Amino acid sequence: MQDGPVIKQAILPGLSMPMFPMRPKSGRQITTKTDIKDIFTRIKSGWTVQLKINGDRAQVGVNDNGLHVANRHGGWYGLSVDTTEWKSLPPGTLLDGEIFKKKFYPFEVVAYDGLSMDRSTPADREAKARWLCEKHGVKWLYEPTQGVLSKMRENMPVIEGVVLKMANTPYLPLSTATRESDAWIKWKWQGA
């Protein structure tokens, strides 16, 4: 827990961290193969679907003052995180992702090299994150293949479920830590 006011770091004009990132609403439980088919039907109808790993939600931002790691509760991340792969990111970059086994894995890029991507589609923000992972030698953990979803129980506690993101929706930070985004829905594997 941090004492006193949180000192924000400006990433771009109008975009500072820590913030309250988009947070998915709770959706249905994944219990059967029919639920898995429904996920892939949504992909075909324009939704972006990503695996939800069982990590700590965090954002990594870079400005002229260095690299910063924030939590989803509007404060700074209090545990140690290996950010070695991300130290060469240019100022004006903000990544949203998960910390898993003390490493940061982005699933979306909110801003990169001084350019905001908050009005880009979830698919575009994801594609940029995937590109950055490849460029920086970080494994992409968010691919919801049929085989992975069918074996989710075996992969637990690594995989918690999936996050479905409505096509063509902007990235809108929230006003509080308890608000949820209308455009993101989390389906959890039963028992996760």
Count of DSSP E strands? 11
What is the CATH superfamily classification? DNA ligase/mRNA capping enzyme
Percent range for β-strand residues: 35-45%
From the spread of the alpha carbons, the general shape counts as globular
Q: Domains counted in the coordinates: how many?
A: 1
**CATH architectural grouping:** 2-Layer Sandwich
Low-confidence stretches: none
What's the order of the H and E elements? Answer: EEEHEEEEEEHHHEE
Strand order of the largest sheet: 6-5-7-8-9
CATH topology annotation = D-amino Acid Aminotransferase, Chain A, domain 1
Largest sheet: 5 strands, antiparallel
CATH class: Alpha Beta
Distance between the termini: 27 Å
Task: Determine the mean pLDDT.
Answer: 89
Rg over CA atoms, rounded to whole Å, is: 16 Å
Total helical elements: 4
What structural category characterises the helix and strand content? alpha+beta
Helix content: 10-25%
Topology summary:
Blueprint: E1 9-12, E2 15-17, E3 24-30, H1 33-44, E4 48-53, E5 56-63, E6 66-71, E7 93-100, E8 103-112, E9 115-116, H2 122-136, H3 146-150, H4 152-155, E10 159-165, E11 181-189
Parallel strand pairs: 3-11
Antiparallel strand pairs: 1-2, 4-10, 5-6, 5-7, 7-8, 8-9, 10-11
Describe the protein in words.
The protein is of the alpha+beta class and 192 residues long. It has one domain: DNA ligase/mRNA capping enzyme (D-amino Acid Aminotransferase, Chain A, domain 1, 2-Layer Sandwich), CATH 3.30.470. The protein has helices at residues 33-44, 122-136, 146-150, 152-155; strands at 9-12, 15-17, 24-30, 48-53, 56-63, 66-71, 93-100, 103-112, 115-116, 159-165, 181-189. The strands form three sheets. A five-stranded antiparallel sheet has the order 6-5-7-8-9. Strands 3-11-10-4 form a four-stranded mixed sheet. A two-stranded antiparallel ribbon has the order 1-2. The radius of gyration is 16 Å and the shape is globular. The model has no long low-confidence stretch (mean pLDDT 89).
